[in-house]
Amino acid sequence: MAGPETPKLMVDVVVPSQEGHILLIRRASDPYEGQWALPGGFVEVGETLEEAAVREAGEETGLTVDIVRLVGVYSDPDRDPRGHNVSCAYLARAQEGEPEAASDAAEASFLDPSTVELAFDHEKIVADALSGDAPLTY
Amino acid sequence: MAGPETPKLMVDVVVPSQEGHILLIRRASDPYEGQWALPGGFVEVGETLEEAAVREAGEETGLTVDIVRLVGVYSDPDRDPRGHNVSCAYLARAQEGEPEAASDAAEASFLDPSTVELAFDHEKIVADALSGDAPLTY
Which pLDDT tens digits describe chain B residue by residue (138 residues)? Predict the structure, then answer.
């Protein structure tokens, strides 16, 4: 594709359960192998960010999610040891079902985020998502 | 840089004047050559989006701007005829001074956005910026 090199574009998805737990995956590969993180991944050319967020949540957890709103954009060049990856984070609501790990995830589960250490800057993303002006209601 | 190909990352900046006009540039090159648009451009690897927004506004208009908040993220694959370019749009406030065109801009001026036709999806970005919950005050 034409144009200069820019940071790579990712999405991460914050999906609270009705009990206030958060949909998390345990990473199957480096960086942060074995650590819990938000579902997410690289955006593909030709899809919107919202489509990427729905696709990544589905691929990694088996759940279908509906996007609620943008949480924020995280662009610190040092936030990802792989390189300069900018993440757009979305708040989403899960449709019925139990999470099942797939793709890059070794496990997928709704967990209390205060009980686990999250990879990357995902603790900040979760805090930002839950402190929004329009809290998620089911 | 390692990793898959993703859409390219841009910033656009909405800078209202105290009179409610918007800082616009007349494009010096294709696409949309000769048409008015928001200051903006491609994000460089190693800079945050906010840094890119300040840099692009300065390069194209000579003004120093302070970022107020994120307006939104625009990721429709068809929004830019050059390819799939995702724009993160920021609301910003200009420090003292008069705009002077430079870089990719043939002209730079504060204009009433309802009197000109803007390039890309910039009319939607301006509308979203001005309809925010926290209107910009000087």
Answer: 457 899 999 999 999 999 999 999 999 999 999 999 999 999 999 999 999 999 999 999 999 999 999 999 999 999 999 999 999 999 999 999 999 998 889 999 999 999 999 999 999 999 999 996 555 555
Say which residues have a Cβ less than 8 Å from residue A66's Cβ, sequence separation at least 6.
A54, A92, A93, A95
Inter-chain residue contact B2 with A82, CB threshold 8 Å: yes
Mutate to test the interface with B, among A73, A103, A125, A133 (most CBs of B within 10 A): A73
**How many Cα atoms sit within 13 Å of B122 on the Cβ side?**
28
Q: Is B117 a catalytic residue?
A: no
Q: What secondary structure, in 3-state letters, does chain B show?
A: CCCCCCCEEEEEEECECCCCCEEEEEECCCCCCCCEECCEEECCCCCCHHHHHHHHHHHHHCCCEEEEEEEEEECCCCCCCCCCEEEEEEEEEECCCCCCCCCCEEEEEEECHHHCCECCCHHHHHHHHHCCCCCCCC
Q: For residues A126 and A117, is the Cβ–Cβ distance under 8 A?
A: no
